[in-house]
Design goal:
The complex is a heterodimer of chains A (126) and B (132). With 126 residues, chain A is an all-alpha fold. Chain A has five helices and no strands. Chain A has helices at 6-11, 21-48, 52-60, 62-90, 94-124. In chain A, helix 2 packs antiparallel against helix 3 (52-60), helix 2 packs across helix 4 (62-90) and helix 4 packs antiparallel against helix 5 (94-124). Chain A is elongated. Chain B is extended, with a radius of gyration of 21 Å. The chains are: A mainly alpha (126), B mainly alpha (132).
């Protein structure tokens, strides 16, 4: 017999007040990252021998731009979740831990915005 | 009311230095280290993209840095960390499905992760040099 209330069962949350989102997001982004990172490696290799105009045209072309952005977003979400675990594991001081967690989020968002800006400018910019 | 003295005298669970080093343990540590390394690799990727967006001058500077000996060394490490973390992640998917927990399987997965990551890294660099 379960001691849980019907509402508790529906919500599926324990005392931590959050479910398995962290684990699940980590796994989903991991799955997405496998093809996306291969794509990213191919794109980087393709730009090695290219001059600036060729590299700009490649990175700004629809297929490559969308693929690079997908890799960046999926990679960043995965990266943030992973670093969160490392911070929670190794920083015992509560204030420092919370500070590091905020820093982790800020850094991730900032890197994301920088990449989105770059790909957008390469795609639409002069 | 607990004080800091009672807190520090609590029994601690055994940590890394207590255990004999095993392959699966080393692979777990490398998975975490490569993950953390990729965090900083992402900064390089962002810099590369932003430099391309800024213009030919900035892109040439980034290209020169990445093309230098030290730059190539870092990028080689970046490539290896990426593939090692990727295969290590696939290993986690296998474990998520409830498979690969036997002693021989765990050891095999460790060998595949190490060998596979090195092979993919070297292959990538051969392709990169051959294509350019």
């Amino acid at each position: 017999m379960s001691m849980r209330t019907p509402l508790g069962k529906v919500r599926g949350l324990g005392s931590a007040k959050s479910g398995t989102e962290h684990f699940w997001q980590q796994r989903i982004t991991a799955l997405a990252n496998v093809p996306l990172m291969f794509f990213l490696v191919v794109v980087v290799i393709a730009t090695i021998g290219a001059d600036y105009a060729q590299a700009k045209a490649l990175l700004g072309s629809p297929f490559v731009a969308i693929g690079v952005l997908a890799a960046v977003v999926s990679g960043l979400v995965h990266m943030r979740l992973g670093m969160q675990v490392i911070i929670e594991d190794y920083i015992p001081n509560e204030a420092m831990k919370i500070g590091a967690l905020y820093l982790n989020t800020f850094a991730t968002v900032l890197i994301g915005i920088a990449c989105v800006w770059a790909v957008a400018k390469l795609s639409f910019g002069a | 009311m607990s004080t800091s003295t009672t807190k520090s005298s609590r029994p601690l669970s055994p940590h890394l230095q207590i255990y004999k080093l095993t392959w699966t343990m080393v692979m777990s540590i490398i998975h975490r280290v490569t993950g953390a390394g990729l965090y900083f690799g992402t900064l390089l990727l962002a810099w590369w993209l932003v430099s391309a967006a800024i213009g030919p001058g900035a892109f040439a500077t980034a290209k020169a840095v990445f093309g230098s000996f030290l730059g190539r060394l870092v990028l080689f490490g970046f490539t290896w960390a990426l593939f090692h973390h990727m295969i290590g992640g696939v290993r986690h998917f296998i474990w998520d499905l409830g498979r690969g927990f036997g002693e021989a399987e765990r050891f095999l997965l460790a060998k595949i992760t190490l060998g596979g990551s090195l092979a993919l890294t070297i292959l990538t660099w051969i392709v990169a040099y051959a294509a350019n």
